[in-house]
Each structure stands twice: as C-alpha cells, then as structure tokens.
Design goal:
CATH superfamily of the domain at 107-323: Zn-dependent exopeptidases
Bound molecules: zinc ion
Oligomer: single chain
Number of strands: 10
Helix content: 40-55%
Largest sheet: 6 strands, mixed
CATH topology of the domain at 107-323: Aminopeptidase
Strand order of the largest sheet: 4-1-5-10-6-9
Strand content: 5-15%
Number of helices: 11
CATH class of the domain at 107-323: Alpha Beta
Radius of gyration: 19 Å
CATH architecture of the domain at 107-323: 3-Layer(aba) Sandwich
Shape: globular
C-alpha cells in the first residue's frame, strides 16, 4: 500500500496464527512424505511432479509461506519453478539451486511491506521519523482484503517466494524482516538495511488499498530528491531501469494488466514521499501488486499460485537488471 488512505485502518486479525499454521504444517508433512515415497517407489527421475512437490513442501519456502491461506498452496507447488526462465526440465529444485550460480556475488534486499504485528504497536509505528524531505510515521499497518487477508501477510509470502527464486540463481538475499520481529522495522531502517548490505537491487513489496474497480499493478520509482538525509539523484536512473524490468517481468509472468488508476497505463509511478525510497542509496523500487480492496484483484492476491507467478515476474526483472 502506498502510504495513503485506507492503509491506516487497523488490520483485523481473523484467527490466531498458530492454529492454522500448525494444521497446515501437519497436512504438509505427510504430503511431503507421501510425495517422496511415490518418488522413491516409482523412481521417476524425469518428471517434475513428485520430486518438485517433495522439494517444495520440505523446503523453507513453501511451508511457512501461506499459513493463513486456504487451499491455495497446492497451486503454488504446481506452478513453482515451472514457468520460470530456467531449467524447467531439471529434475529437482535442489538440483537447480546448486546448478546455477549466475548471480553469485550479487546482493538483493527484499522488503516485505508492513508487519503483521504493526497494528498491535501503534505507539512504536506512529513515532515520527525523518525521511529527508519531511517527517513521517515509522511504519504503517498496511491494508487488507475485504475478507481480512492482510497486506502484511501477502508481502511476506511473496518476499519469501522471491528469495527462494533468487537464491536458486546464486544471489545473496536479505529480507528487512522475516516475520521475526513484533513490529516494523521503521521505513528509515528498511532503507538502511539495503544501504548497509550494499544491495545491487532492492525491492519493497506491497499491495494497494484503493477503491473497488481500481485494478492492476504498478511499480513505484524514486524521484530525484536532494533534501536533508535524502539524496536519490544517483539512484534515480538505475532504479528506473530496475523498475521497468520488474514491470515487464511482472506483466509477463502474471498476465495481469498495469494499474488502471495510477500511472496512465504505464505500470509506473514516480514518488518523492516514500522514506524507503528517499533514503535509499542503492537502486530500489516499490511494487504495488494489485488492489486488495477490489474483489477481482483480491482473488488474485489471495491465490498462492498467482503469488508464485508474481514472485517469478519480479525475479525475472531483477535478474535481467543484475545481468545488465
Ligand atoms: Zn503497503
């Protein structure tokens, strides 16, 4: 969400986290074992089915990625890795991971927008921080679909999927948070993490909270800002290059159209009011993957299979940028 409008609404937490997560895990473990058993018995080294399922279910990406998402992980497993730009015939995800290292030495920082715990910490996240051009809240709660699927859950899930894809290609990937802290980090720290990591590329992942009927994705590029601690003059150009490639990759992988309400159909927007961009000294963009408040976009955003495609699209754009 782009830090305007309904993003300040508190996010309802519909269910305790541990319950469905435990249930999902309990369901996944036997499924993974069954997958391996079938794989072992049949001994099929050519098919991507059993081995891909087993690798997906037992890896760190699939199990924790969508604890609150009903039934959509199946689709993500099927889609995982198959529509990407690398080795679809490769027998296993593990093989792909060790086999290609074209991004070795490259550092990517992924920023999952918001934090599921933010709404419980209003004092901390409402604290004003200096983003160069002005002061702003440390962080915000993010939006949610009308059915209560929070943006913060979406962003963390897509971020983990993207991390897996980039690590498979040899990149060093750092998340600004990984569901491992009660709130935040502040937008200032989100930028700082990318800067300190000397990231070759950084991306902040969001979904918007606009009016129903407003649909589609857009990539937000940093405008050239030179004010206080903010100086984006050196990164504005490379960030645009990164953003255009991510926009193209995302459109191709998801088949979804650019925003019909921001960017005039280009899928691109330029902003000078986002701390995460203003304070970045490395090439960085935001992506708003869709509008959580529109029912058709929400149907995509809540689908694990679609989120996998979204991650693949971002990965394609980032890889293209890093390879020049
Ligand atoms: Zn957001």
């Amino acid at each position: 969400m782009s830090y305007l409008g309904p993003e300040f609404e508190p996010v309802p937490q519909r269910r305790p986290r541990r319950g469905p997560f435990t249930v999902a895990l309990a369901a996944l473990v036997p499924a993974a074992l069954a997958g391996w058993l079938v794989y072992e018995v049949v001994g099929d080294s050519g098919g991507s089915g059993p081995s891909a399922q087993a690798a997906g279910a037992s890896g760190h990406s699939a199990a924790p990625s969508a604890p609150g998402d009903k039934g959509s992980d199946k689709g993500s497993d099927k889609g995982g890795g198959e529509s990407g730009d690398k080795g679809a015939g490769s027998p296993s995800a593990t093989g792909r991971k060790s086999g290609s290292g074209s991004l070795k030495g490259k550092v990517v920082v992924i920023d999952p927008g918001h934090n599921l715990g933010n709404f419980k910490h209003p004092t901390e996240i409402n604290r004003q921080v200096n983003i160069g051009t002005n002061s702003k809240e440390c962080d915000t709660t993010g939006t949610a679909t009308n059915a209560g699927y929070p943006e913060a859950r979406f962003t963390l899930d897509v971020s983990r999927r993207l991390r897996t894809l980039l690590e498979e290609q040899g990149a060093t990937v750092k998340l600004t948070h990984d569901g491992d802290r009660p709130w935040g980090p502040c937008v200032t720290e989100r930028a700082e993490i990318g800067n300190k990591a000397h990231a070759d590329a950084a991306i902040s992942i969001h979904a918007d909270g606009s009016a129903a009927g407003n649909r589609g994705f857009h990539v937000i590029l940093p405008g050239a800002v030179h004010d206080g601690a903010a100086d984006t003059r050196a990164i504005a150009g490379p960030s645009r290059d990164l953003g255009v490639r991510i926009k193209d990759g995302f459109a191709r992988a998801t088949g979804t159209a650019p925003s019909n309400y921001i960017g005039g159909g280009t899928g691109l927007d330029v902003r000078k009011d986002l701390g995460g961009l203003n304070l970045s000294t490395v090439p960085k963009v935001f992506i708003e993957c869709g509008n959580m408040r529109d029912s058709k976009d929400a149907a995509l955003l809540t689908s694990g299979a679609w989120r996998q495609k979204a991650a693949e699209g971002m990965s394609g754009g980032i890889v293209s940028f890093l390879r020049g």
